[in-house]
Design brief:
The protein has helices at about 25-40, 50-65, 70-90, 110-115, 135-140; strands at about 95-100, 105. With about 150 residues, the chain is mainly alpha-helical. It is elongated and about 50 Å long.
């Protein structure tokens, strides 16, 4: 789900550029924010700006980039949307959740019918979702926002 290219922000203008998150960057960000959740530092309405800035500093130091807190917030929103989609698909009629392989299973008939009308759901059905599962406790918290 994550790509491997990064175009860092321009250091001259102070404006953020386009960033494509790598798996290691995503894992670092989610790990940092999961630690904050474990320490009870997250409010019910999401992470404070100071926490996002701390996460940004960690990412910038580790990966030698110029990421902004807005980019961190937007990436968190992306993962939240992915997790909401996974939860909704797990609740589909006829869907079976395989905990061992982290797969939402649909019979061939249900899969074909669902994907015909919901093409964006295809990558999440009958495929292993291991990239999203390590962060399940973090993403399942009610009211999670960027």
């Amino acid at each position: 789900m994550d790509n491997v290219e990064v175009t860092a922000a321009s250091g001259n203008t102070g404006k953020s550029g386009v960033i494509v998150w790598t798996s290691s960057m995503t894992n670092t960000r989610l790990g940092f924010l999961a630690d904050l959740v474990a320490k009870g530092k997250r409010t019910s309405s999401g992470f404070r700006e100071t926490h996002l800035k701390q996460c940004t500093a960690v990412l910038n130091e580790q990966f030698k980039l110029a990421i902004t807190s807005d980019q961190v917030r937007n990436h968190l929103k992306k993962w939240r949307k992915i997790w909401v989609r996974v939860v909704n698909l797990k609740n589909l009629s006829g869907a079976l959740w395989d905990e061992d392989t982290c797969t939402i299973r649909l019979s061939e008939e249900h899969y074909a019918g669902h994907c015909m009308t919901h093409k964006p759901d295809a990558p999440f059905l009958n495929n292993q979702l291991s990239t999203t599962m390590p962060w399940r406790p973090f993403l399942e918290q009610p009211g999670l926002r960027g």
